[in-house]
Amino acid sequence: MFGRTLIIANPVAGKGEGQEYAQALRTVLEETYQNECTIKVTEGDDDAFEWSKQAIDEGFESVLCLGGDGTVSQTVAGLLQNKERPRFAFIPLGTVNDLARALGYSMNPQKAIERMKDVEIDTLDIGQINDQYFINVVAVGPIPESVMQTDSDDKNRLGAFAYVIDGFTAFFSEKGYDLHIVDADGVETDIVSNLLLIGLTNSIGGIEIMNPEAKYNDGLMYLAAIRGHNPMDTIRGVLEGGIFETDKERLLLMESSQFQITTQESQDVPTNVDGDPGPALPLDLQVLHQALEIYVPRNRRRILG
Ligand SMILES: Nc1ncnc2c1ncn2[C@@H]1O[C@H](COP(=O)(O)OP(=O)(O)OP(=O)(O)O)[C@@H](O)[C@H]1O
Known about the structure:
This is DAGKc domain-containing protein. By secondary structure, the chain is an alpha+beta fold.
């Protein structure tokens, strides 16, 4: 199943246990599939990107990484540098791990490793925003860097977002930005908003707030924007109610394989890509449909988003 496998481990992710988990993963794979695994431990920023980029030339059939969203994003970006790509999977060691939730991976690293014993192959969409990739979510608005990566114990329903909003209200502007959105069909929409999110699946910030039908390889992005220049308590109310519960007066909801977002604003509109500061507008977003082949556990317990 896995063939020659490269395991990339971030030793500082997951309470510093990335390396031990990598050994455990190697043992599981070698015992289950009698394959050959190589572990590489990252030292800094570009390692995961460089190693996954070179993996195909080095004869690896699969690349698995262990880490948080940063490590997963870098590994994915490296894989996408080649036309022919090794298959991919990861063991989530971060805090929010939206993609892992959408894929039905366990949030418990030991269990996620065990589940590699019985997998099937599926495909995964990757998002592109201008000249970079995203795996989870793009936010447009004055959202602080730490928003999508907040360390919250409360991962249900409001989860990370409630924590974020409580903790960072001061960072949100009550100014609404004038945004112009064009989708793949050329439909044009104007909106004033101070919170616009675009996700590839229905899980954002650790909670399921988008379209419950959203699937990680359906070729679509899901956009939700809160209309007007709302204070945080309104935004909070909308999130508590669930973004997918259509409320056309307060919410703009769209789905498309492409979005173009522009503004006439004189000041820069901040953006956030998978928890890190993103590019300035104009934004060109598109789905790289089924860009990767991935391993997912065969017996996933819940309906997937
Ligand atoms: N050996 C290392 N020592 C220190 N930092 C490292 C090392 N290897 C990788 N890094 C850094 O770790 C960061 C990525 O962390 P990652 O996102 O995987 O975990 P995390 O921050 O715990 O996860 P999350 O943000 O989802 O909570 C990168 O910025 C990378 O430079």
